Amino acid sequence: MFKLKALTRLAAVVSGLAVVFGAAAPPVRAEITEVRIAQQFGLAYLPLIVARNQKFIEKRAAEAGISDLKVNWVRLGSGAAVNDALLSGSIEFGAAGLGPLFTLWDKTRTNLGVRAVVALDASALFLNVNRPDLKTLADIKDSDRIALPAVKVSHQAVLLRMAAEQAFGPGQHERLDRFTVTLPHPEAHVALLSGKTEVTGHFGNSPFSYQQLDQAGIHRLLSSEDILGGLGTVTSVITTAKVREANPKVYRAVIEGLRDAQALIARDKALAARLFVEEEKSSLTADYIRGVLEKPAMRYSAVPVNTAKFGDFMFRTGVLKTRPGTWQDYFFPEIHDQPGS
Predict the structure, then answer these.
(1) DSSP conformation letters of 6-63
(2) Phi, psi of 25 (to 5 degrees)
(3) Is residue 252 located within the same domain as residue 311?
(4) What is the pTM of this model?
(5) Which residues of the chain fall below pLDDT 50?
(6) pLDDT, position 255
(7) 144 C-beta neighbours (distance < 10 Å), count
(8) Cβ(38)–Cβ(75) under 8 Å?
(9) Helix (H) or strand (E) holding 182
(10) 284: left (phi over 0), alpha (psi -120 to 50) or beta
(11) What is the C-alpha to C-alpha distance for residues 250 and 147, in angstroms, rounded to an integer?
């Protein structure tokens, strides 16, 4: 009996010590040592391109104690493809326009909790056309096709719906949907310039839009500045709440690395242009890209600009089930102290 009681007391003491010293606590899960980041095509993704070349994310991770972080860069053709990859777990971070961001934020609010990490750029987007008599949206005919990254859900698709409502009145936002086709920017660019396909318009991004306007027979039908009343965020980096919570150091390294890239672009556009040409294996010259970067309609900022109009429109037209309150609703807290909109 004495031995049984003694053993019982000893077991209780050992159990108590285990709790005190943490032996009973679950093991701490290490952060990932490999991160996959998806980007698309064009100068909207220049901060990612610069960060890749300069290894800014790896450097920031090393400063935080993760010396062996491997960053794998994935190329996808549209925001819809980025959304699919993020939902399937094929990537940890992805860059997409506001259309895909709001769509995924709305659908995952009660589970994966997808939100934006940082904005990448706030630039003007152009709808360029190759038909001389196409002067307004009302001139679009059944034979015309407008190429954009993804019909109905891409950033450009939402902008086109906003423009349709402004041109034709309330309830007419879907009026131009039937004229749109899904094409990655490089393919849409070639199709528009050739003049030999059904594509008579391309709602693209830089540098494609500026290249097109350099060619005879191409003119701008409208600009996102006309629709929004100024510049607005085009692309952001998005991720899930799980990735952020499980990998705080890697998450912070991504934020700081991209801000480092944006700072480099701001102070040395010549270098940024050269890096774009080298990394993208572009046929354009660094001088040409530098000229584009110096245009007033090209801006890079981690802080969201003019995004609320997008969310309000998508909710009002039934695309979103939840109305975003403020921009902080669809961006993670790390940049909430910034003057976004």
Answers:
(1) HHHHHHHHHHHHHHHTTTTSPPPPPPPSEEEEEE-SSGGGHHHHHHHHHTHHHHHHHH
(2) -75, 150
(3) yes
(4) 0.86
(5) 1-8, 10-26
(6) 97
(7) 18
(8) yes
(9) strand 180-182
(10) beta
(11) 36
pLDDT the model gives residue 77: 79
Two tokens, residue 216: 């005879």
* Residues found in the chain: 341
Tokens 């690395």 belong to residue:
257
Q: What is the pLDDT of residue 10?
A: 42
The pLDDT value given to residue 329: 96
Place of tokens 């980096």: 237
**Of 183, 212, 228, the domain-final residue:** 228
- Domain hosting 44: range is 34-123+231-329
> According to the model, what pLDDT value does residue 27 have?
52
Amino acid at the residue 12? A
Angle formed by the axes of helices 46-54 and 248-267, nearest 10°: 100
What's residue 14's pLDDT? 42
Name the residue among 150, 112, 153 with its Cα closest to residue 310. 153
213 and 267 share a domain?
no
Whether 296 and 206 have beta carbons less than 8 Å apart is answered as: no
Spatial distance between the Cα atoms of 195 and 204, rounded to a whole number of angstroms: 16
Do 43 and 119 fall into the same domain?
yes
Helical pair 79-88 and 98-107, crossing angle rounded to 10 deg: 30
Give me the number of domains the chain comprises: 2
- Residue 30 has what pLDDT? 87
The pLDDT value recorded for residue 6 is: 45
Q: In the structure encoding, which two tokens stand for residue 32, read together? A: 């990932």
